Amino acid sequence: MANVPPMPLEEAQERLLALVEPLPMQHVDIEGSIGRYLAEGLVARRTQPAADLSAMDGYAVTGDDMAGPWSVVGESAAGHPYPGEVASGQAIRISTGAVLPVGAEAVILQEDLARDDGRITLTGEPPEPKHKHIRRSGLDFVAGRELLAAGTLIGPAQAALALAAGHKHMPVCRKPRITVIDSGDELATDPETCEPHQIPASNGTMLLSMARTLPVTAERSGPIPDTLDALISAFDAAHRADVIVTSGGASVGEHDLVRPALEAWGATLDFWRVAIKPGKPILVARRERPEGTQIVIGLPGNPVSSFVTAYHFLLPVLRRLLGARHALPMSIVTRLGAPMRANGGRREFVRGSWDGQCVVPHSIQDSGALSALAASNVLIDRQAHAPQGEPGEEARVFLIENGGIA
Ligand SMILES: Nc1nc2c(c(=O)[nH]1)N[C@H]1C(S)=C(S)[C@@H](COP(=O)(O)OP(=O)(O)OC[C@H]3O[C@@H](n4cnc5c(N)ncnc54)[C@H](O)[C@@H]3O)O[C@H]1N2
Ligand code: MOO
Q: Is the separation of the CB atoms in 19 and 319 below 8 Å?
């Protein structure tokens, strides 16, 4: 398999996403649905506004005579509609959000009127057109209309819309269960007592927290030693996970045991190696069980490689399981604020800082350099063989905070 050329990124992402389907639907209360994705379209159960309302504080009049004066015969306050009908020459005191009385066709702002006891006279301009300050019934939406499509990310505005549309619950997909396994004999669990021949185990926590930017149930197992038995036991222990993520041991060395362990465990390798830098040795395998397909994503151990591949593969597969319409991160175009060297033969995701105007690559691009990754907020997408870049040129970047825009 080492002879098979690494796969282009988009092809590999497509292959991975084709292996999974959104998880089964469940209904949760609106607050619990924030950050999840609609499992089916959301249809309005009511019309909003349900009646014609005043959009301002003032007086409601019939509109046949806009010169006045008028005699004030009652009030319509928010939540307390006027029970009768307004007639020509009469006015109803009305507040913002209150129901327009029967017979009223105009609301005159209180700033444009003078009130003397029960009488109001025009001092300013009447509304033009007459219905200017009226919110018609159904202006926002009518009952039966689909307001949000399946796959929409539920945020504060979508939650508020669902409530306004008469919903107490939202249809969402079950949360994916994910287990992160990091492996390597050199990994020290306690960073304070790490020996020179060791390295603090940092990928497990990094990957767990990347996954937790999405609504998942995530746990970690490891770090575990570089042995087949330890890996197989860790896979066995993760039998309930929808997605297992490993970090390390994905390359070609004799201690790189993730592939043989997966095969021994009964998983089938789907692909290995993608033409990106960092992250080339990523592998994807699957295991069929009665409860559904289990996906294993084997990320390369270099910390930045793990991060970049989790960004481009792990988060998208979690979004797909969650029922998201857009599983893949989207890039935006900005401009270079500094020169960039010509790229080699692998598409590279260069760590950089974007200030809203332009992007500057970091000087250290080693795939183990966490200092540059932690100082970055974007990955600059450099195509294979891209020529040297000059300041002012367009550059495509992926925002990395919270898994980017998806
Ligand atoms: N002869 C070749 N050697 C390598 C190739 C290759 O094609 N031919 N590919 C290189 C590339 S590219 C990468 S990326 C790495 C990935 O290797 P592995 O996935 O096998 O990762 P390890 O060797 O286990 O570790 C690499 C590096 O990362 C550190 N590491 C591992 N796990 C953690 C962790 N949980 N927390 C922090 N740091 C971790 C580990 O100590 C190593 O320094 O292979 C190249 N080699
Ligand atoms: O692909 Mo490796 O991830 O370049 O360091």
A: no
User: Can you tell me whether residue 179 is helix, strand or coil?
Assistant: strand
pLDDT at 123: 96
Question: What domains are there in the chain, each with its CATH number?
Answer: 9-24+174-321 (3.40.980.10), 30-47+140-173 (3.90.105.10), 53-135 (2.170.190.11), 331-403 (2.40.340.10)
The rounded Å distance from CA 147 to ligand 2 centre is 44
State both tokens at 55: 């959009």
| pLDDT over 70 (residue 2) | no
pTM of the shown model: 0.93
Q: Which amino acid is at 163?
A: L
Query: Helical H runs in 83-201?
Result: 156-164
3-state DSSP assignment of residue 208: helix
> Using an 8 Å Cβ cutoff, are 146 and 42 in contact?
yes
CA–centroid distance, residue 305 to ligand 2 (Å): 5
Task: Collect all residues with Cβ–Cβ distance below 8 Å to 285 and sequence separation of at least 6.
Answer: 262, 267, 268, 269, 270, 295, 296, 298
The model's pLDDT over 70-126, given as tens digits with 9 standing for 90+, comes to: 999 999 999 999 999 999 999 999 999 999 999 999 999 999 999 999 999 999 999
d(CA 58, CA 236): 70
What pLDDT, on a 0 to 100 scale, did the predictor assign at position 256?
Answer: 82
- Counting ligands in written order, the one closest to the CA of 187 is 1
- Tell me the residue type at 198: Q
Number of other residues whose CB lies within 10 A of the CB of residue 373: 21
Atom number, ligand 2, closest to the C-alpha of residue 309: 3
User: Complex ipTM above 0.95?
Assistant: yes
pLDDT of 139 reads: 97
For residue 379, the Cα-to-chain-centroid distance in whole angstroms is 18
Which of 302, 347, 349 should be mutated for ligand 1, with most atoms under 8 A from CB? Answer: 302
Going by CA atoms, what residue is nearest to atom 4 of ligand 2?
A: 278
Q: What are phi and psi of 235, to 5 degrees?
A: -65, -45
For 379-391, what is the mean pLDDT? 97
Tokens of 218: 């995530």
Alpha helices by DSSP H, 288-383: 303-309, 315-321, 370-374
- Cα dihedral 131, 132, 135, 140 sign: positive
Q: Return the number of other C-beta atoms located less than 10 Å from residue 86's C-beta.
A: 25
